[in-house]
Amino acid sequence: MNKSVSFSSPPPYSVMDPVANAASSPSPSLQEVKDLCASINQMHASRLGFSLDNKSKLRGAYLIDATETRVPSAEILTLEDLLDRPPVVNGRRAKLSKKERYNLALTLASSVLYLNSTPWLMDQWAAKDILFHRTENAIHPMEIDRPHVAPSLVEQNKGMPNGHKARGFHNKNSVLLALAIALLELYFGTSAAKYQEDELGAADPLLHSNPWLLCSMAHTWAEESQDDLSAAFLSAVRHCLRCFGDPGASLQDAEFLQAAVESIVLPLQEELHQFLGTTIS
Q1: Fewer C-beta neighbours within 10 Å, C or N terminus of the chain?
Q2: What is the DSSP letter of 269?
Q3: Which of 5-19, 174-188, 198-212 has the highest mean pLDDT?
Q4: CATH number for the domain whose boundaries are 73-276
Q5: What is d(CA 165, CA 120) in angstroms, rounded to the nearest whole number?
Q6: Whole-angstrom Cα distance, residue 155 to residue 161?
Q7: DSSP three-state, residue 199
């Protein structure tokens, strides 16, 4: 059985979030998860879900409906594809809507902060590493609400001693630099490479392999576009970039992680509510 991880509704960081609260009140039959691997093995299913209760305890597992048919895995699309080369569906380009991009931004930000210390996510990731399944549904041709991490990222983490992750560049917050780039890409609906091509006439093939080059580009992109960025996205991007440049900062520190939640996730969550016309009571 192939193993993969995907991110659905973002975790309920804010107890004031009515949408999150609805998801954070799991059925009484869902037991608190003490051993994630044991819970997965007991269910013997390929698609499982877990819930966070209002005390941030993981509960589950429960079966996820898998009745929707997918097309062969060869037609998996990356986030980079959807931004720069969206597929043609019914004669039209299936571009990501602003609502989809806002939702993805919140999902990725939430997931990065939750998964940064796990083998599921490498420090240096990019839009090409976030995958989506194609479906046979003409109205919803892609599972936009279910992004997956590229298997190659998981494979690179296997076999590391003491569960440590392989790092091509030794900066504890490279994962936040990658998030800053992803947020800019999602807000403007274009990849970093396409942004470089439009601004400089050509994309640097070494962009994503050189964190300092990537950081410089992100600073330039954010500052030159600050009048066009929303307050939430600008705040989140700036916080990610500040953290990347701070050698003493680490998401393994509870206070630093909480600050990241408050400066990245919560503003994006609030702005999504405003965009959807829902209120936080």
Answers
A1: N
A2: H
A3: 174-188
A4: 1.10.510
A5: 10
A6: 14
A7: helix
